[in-house]
Amino acid sequence: MNKLLQILFFLIFCAGTANATKIKGHVYDKQTGEAIVGATVILENPRRVTNTGLDGTFEFKGLSAGSAKISVSYITYKTITKTFTIEKEDNEHLKFYMESDSKSLDDVTIKSNAVSSTDQGARRLEKNATQIMNIVSGKAIEISPDLTVANVMQRISGVSIERNSNGDGQYAILRGMDKRYNYTLVNGVKIPSPDNKYRYVPLDLFPSDLLDRLEVYKTLTPNFEGDAIGGGINMVMKNAPGKFQLDANLSSGYSRLFIDRKFTSFNSSDIQHKSPYEVNGKNYNATQNDFTKGTLDYKFKNPAPNLIGSLSLSQRFLDNKLGVVLAGSYQNTYRGSNSTFYNTAVNGTDAYSVITNKSYRAFSEQQQRTGLHGKVDYVFNRNHQLSLYNVYVNLKNEQLRDAVTTTYNGVYNPTLGNAELVYNTRSRLTEQQIYNSTLHGDHKFFDEKLKLQWSAVYSSAKNDVPENTSISLNGIEQNFQSRRLSLVNTNPVTRRWERNTDEDLAGYLDLTYRFTFGENKLDVLAGGLYRDKQRSSFFNNYNLAPSASDANKIYGVDYQNYTDLNLVVSNPTGAVANSLTYDASEKISAGYGMFKYISAKLELIGGARVEHTIQSYNLLFPAGETFPNGQQVYTDVLPSLTAKYFLSDKAQLHASYYKALNRPGFYEIVPGKVVNEEFQERGNPNLKRALADNFDLRYELFPGASEQLLVGAFYKRIKDPIEYTFQADATRGQDIYYTPGNFGTANNYGAEVDYIKYFSKIGIKANYTYTHSSITTPKTTRVINPLTGDIQAVSVEQKRPLYGQSEHIANISLLFKDTKKGWDVQVAGAYTGPRINTVSQFLNNDLWQEGFIQMDASAEKRFKGGISIFIKANNILNTPAKLFIKGTNPENNKINEQLVEDGNTLVRSDYYGQNYLIGLRYKFN
Questions:
Q1: Reduced to 3 states, what is the DSSP secondary structure of residue 324?
Q2: Among 105, 334, 886, 898, which one has the highest count of C-beta atoms within 10 angstroms of its own C-beta?
Q3: Which of 168, 194, 504 is nearest to 336 (CA)?
Q4: Nearest CA among 771, 747, 757, 657 for reference residue 710
């Protein structure tokens, strides 16, 4: 009987299967024709619910023939419904075209950032953009492993990042062009840098969760500022959509580094933000009591878990005329690194360096990152709109670096015994901040033929490093056991104050007039800007030494804590009278004229920009400098031409030529000298701007929702490129300085491939960039004089790549997205090839960074009610940053630490550890 029932059930199942069928469909945006990802699809009778995949498709299986009804809904789109008949086989592939449900005000559309921040919106902007550009959408940023804009940048084709001392991304290198060759914008407005030396902006200041999207311009048109040979980075902040939105997230995590060792900190709460000179006057004689003890009060502990959170609110009022968005982000993280550094020196006439000592360096850093963004916009009518937005970012970094340097009889060779030791500990608080306020207007006249846009901008950037304190101990280690460490240095304790502030006032004006010739259009554009930048820079330094009776006291025997030391100030009035205390200004006037011709098959944009620059400085305490004050005045004409040829609705060719410049930073032209730990550095008042001709060609294919294939090539010819090299003092040949200079003409060319493809729930993002560059700079080598037999230094020319340029850069991300079950998973890998990290004064002695792969991952699970849980993991492979010199000295082979491999000599390795984060997100919209 049981067997009969089993056979009967099997026959019934087969009969049902024979009559069951499936239906497939595709959901598109009616206006753009692009597929919509994540739309909700509901089948009635029987009721089934699914979501469109990453390619916009959906499927229902196991259906019976007959009448059925499907409805499709998605945020900001009108719900549509279709009734049809399910056949037993050969069902027609259903297509749904959804119309926007954006709210309108007197024919002015209020666009939702729920659309503009999506991957589909990003691909649409890339396709329609005048410039050659790449965009990372706000949604992609949200589900990525990255917490700062700097780390997001590494996912973009042609971009590599330069990391700070804790392994976090800090600066972007575009197409092999050093960070100095790009600029940073917020909502299209250029912002100043808080850096004390250079004009490029540290991108680790910006929390990524404040962004609607991140745009990278790889070419320029005349209406963009011209000092971007490498390109421009534009952070588009969150906007006010057509309805109420609330986004909030809170997360916590830990750094694997501090499971293996303690976190070292100091008491920064009582740091004096002004030096004794500023507090008491220029004739005041400082004593030890004028300095805080907190910077020498070291603590070893397990740090608290990292804490990260953000909140954004947005709504429209007054019948959608008034839009308001408020957003804030806070990140309190504990990071660090373990570093091994081998110092080298050129030995005799050998072309390669010999290792002289070894340093262990342990960094512990607490970073507190705050970001605030607010925007108010008011729509009067279809022709007139005003907006006011403000952005504030602040990064406080408390860093303690503990280092020990070991030398054996003048070289590093542990087999010699009796190590000479130097312990150096530095406690430093750095606070950087940027503020930008922009009032912007959009106006249309004469039936929208004439458009006028204007902006009034105030920006400021500040960098403050108060009471930067270092202390060093000298001693000896006998038989690797007994250590005797004492304050035998002349000035073992230093206290340094550094501060600089930039303030910008700027005005922008853009006019556009449109002519129409049948189906063709011609836009004529003109405009300009004026910016007044004022910089103040302050530097002061105090040296402290033990009294004669205390100079040889032994640490751990005669005293236990650095705060117990009795010190005498060697320079009681300070060292404010130096060339790093100065005022400077930069005034830029610019104007442009351009045209934009649009037809069915061709878009042509051309014109020229003129920029006039007045850059000046004034040393407040000149000390015999040849140029205590100086000024550079120059005018540049920057032509450009861009063409887009439409091969089809989804494919196009994009070509561009533009001329651009790179101005020196204030620090680079001020003839000051600063003594760093490893070398001296000074400015060059004769430094000239760099000029470059830039050529680009890219094939662009956008086959489906969020998909693309971009294949391009670029070439840059740079006149008077600015590079840092070691140079001998013209008046005192024995002194060597690290200083900027102009070096002839450099060439940089390469190719890029950018590919995004989705297969229902699976996606792949991949890009690869090849870059080759060359520049010729002077190097020093040593030869034996055949007449005297003496060793003498001679200068030779050497060709090398540009500083910071990697020949190979690649990214690949594997994505999984299940909209129905609420899953988003991403595994991302980034490869950066070898590149020059430091340019040496000696031939064949440049320091190269070893190529490396960084692996990151993230996952998010969404639940009903707008709640989701996410995890992020960074540096999963614990990939170190390693520096090496090409070639080796035979003496280095005697060191039994595997420092020589494949003919290269390892000189530094930094390990940062893995970082993990788990959090909760809530969305209401």
A1: strand
A2: 334
A3: 168
A4: 757
